[in-house]
Design brief:
It is globular and about 75 Å long. The protein is mostly helical. It starts with 5 loop residues before the first helix and ends with a helix. The chain has a 3-stranded antiparallel beta sheet. Helix 2 (52-64) packs antiparallel against helix 3 (70-82). The protein is built from 11 helices and 3 strands; from the N terminus they run ααααβββααααααα. Helix content is 54%, strand content 5%. The protein folds into 2 domains: 7-36; 52-210, hpI Integrase, Chain A, CATH 1.10.443.
Length: 238
């Protein structure tokens, strides 16, 4: 199976086993020898993460775009500041944001409610966007992010927008809106945030889902160690 992804192997073995079970059940074969086949465990790949410099480059790219990008700047700053899912961003209403407390009330997966913190940069960008797009008339039930027709942006539209800017920035073609969410979590972990706090901010129902960021953070710490410590492995080899 050289060159074949493990997920493909799992899928194909499962299909063969299911088909053989069908043949045995209806008498087409006497014995199902695929019972001897074991399905390999899926390996979870670590999420891709953008560095702080890449986040800055993305925002600078949006700034340089010839058209008005007030909304798009606010979008990226918000996702990086809060780690919100795209569906949560597009479902956000003006009434969900408490600017005085720098908090946002989110209704996430499974209609579970949580509160996330909004950073100063993101708050400034959202205030600027709302002031420019609503002419001072803020209705709590209205969506925060609007399209040209004045209706809520769709998740797909947000994904296309950010993908466009990522491509313009010359970054990894596999980066996506979700990469910014992953970056938020990893940078929080690198900064010393507690795993439970990150779990709550991301809206994960299980801590196991959040634990993947400890592995990404460990990789980051090793890279920092390699560069900084005078007796690191890489420096001893020289």
């Amino acid at each position: 199976n050289k060159g074949i992804k493990q997920s493909s192997v799992v899928r194909k073995v499962s299909a063969i086993k299911s088909f053989s079970s069908y043949l045995e059940r209806f008498g087409y074969i006497e014995k199902n020898y695929t019972d001897l086949l074991s399905i390999p465990k899926k390996t979870k790949s670590l999420p891709k993460v953008m560095g702080g410099t890449e986040i800055e480059n993305l925002i600078k790219t949006i700034n340089r775009y010839p058209k008005d990008t007030t909304r798009d700047e606010a979008l990226v700053e918000l996702i990086y500041s809060t780690g919100l899912r795209v569906s949560e961003v597009t479902g956000l209403t003006i009434g969900n944001i408490d600017f005085e407390r720098s908090e946002i009330r989110i209704i996430g997966k499974g209609n579970k409610e949580r509160v996330v913190i909004i950073g100063k940069k993101a708050e400034e960008k959202i205030r600027k966007y709302l002031a420019k797009s609503r002419k001072g008339i803020l209705i709590n039930s209205n969506p925060v992010f609007l399209n040209k027709l004045g209706t809520a942006l769709s998740p797909r539209s947000v994904q296309r927008l950010i993908k466009k800017y990522l491509v313009m920035s010359g970054m990894d073609s596999n980066y996506s809106t979700h990469t910014i969410r992953h970056s938020f979590a990893t940078h929080m972990m690198d900064g010393g945030a507690d795993l439970k706090v990150i779990q709550q901010l991301l809206g994960h129902s299980s801590p196991e889902t959040t634990k993947v960021y400890t592995h990404v953070s460990s990789r980051s710490m090793k890279e920092i160690y390699e560069k900084a410590h005078p007796r690191s492995f890489s420096k001893q080899r020289k």
